[in-house]
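Box 3.1 A note on notation
Throughout this textbook, protein chains are presented in two layers. The first layer is the amino acid sequence; the second is a token string describing backbone geometry. Keep the layers aligned when reading.
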Amino acid sequence: MAQETLLNLVADHLGKGVILTLAEESDILSSIEFKTVNSNVYKYNVADVLPEAKFRALGEQPAEGKLSTEIETEALAILFNDISVDRAISAFQNVNDVMAENTLAGAKAMAKTLTKTFFYGNNTTNDKEFDGLEARLAKGKGTAITHALTGAKADIEKLEELIDAVDGRPSVIYVNKSTRRILNKIARENNCYSQVERFGKYVDSFDGIPVVVCEEVKDGHIFAVRYGTEYVNGLTINGIQTEDLGTVGVFRKAKIEGYVGLQTAHPKCFAMMKAE
């Protein structure tokens, strides 16, 4: 099953412009790869108990180990935005330019919605969206750490606990600006502050892990995420497509739409810190 970025799933010029705008507006969409699936519901096996590995003697026929698996299900959701421009605008402006501007503005709005849903989506309270990271904690995915950063000495131990809760090492830490200021202060005081290169730009880091600001993250919340096929990755049927619908009545219309979802394939693929 292919793993691709959203940009690889579109061929037309307008569609690529929309995807590039999505990526510019959201670090998540720059980072995450999408697995292409053929249904709006994706089922997959997760090994909860690995078969036991043993040594054997020469000529011995040992009993076969058994792999214990569970079937998990992820639902994809339809993300869309409709673009509509009054054709009368052509009397004093180039309607194609106005359509392009409005389409890219629509893409920016979609990026914000997708980013917010990545963290806080809840399919139980809104069955039109997929579960975000916070909602998955109650379902046994990820690790919740209860702590409020204040700049006290205990903060560094809790931050190390947050990092250690992710299998291997997090790809990135997400915070908002307010929390980043506290995090940078703690990092400097404990000699673990530096800047690292990320997508052509230098960003703050904590212990070498990029710290990325997302204003969709709530005050006091910190997400440590590991991206990858076996960790956090996206799901889609055919990416996010852009279609010019032409003139409908007095409006020139376009639609941006696609099936998208989230897979947290490992129980320790992310961790979240919050005060309550």
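Residues 95-120 form the longest helix (26 residues). The first strand starts at residue 3 and ends at 4.
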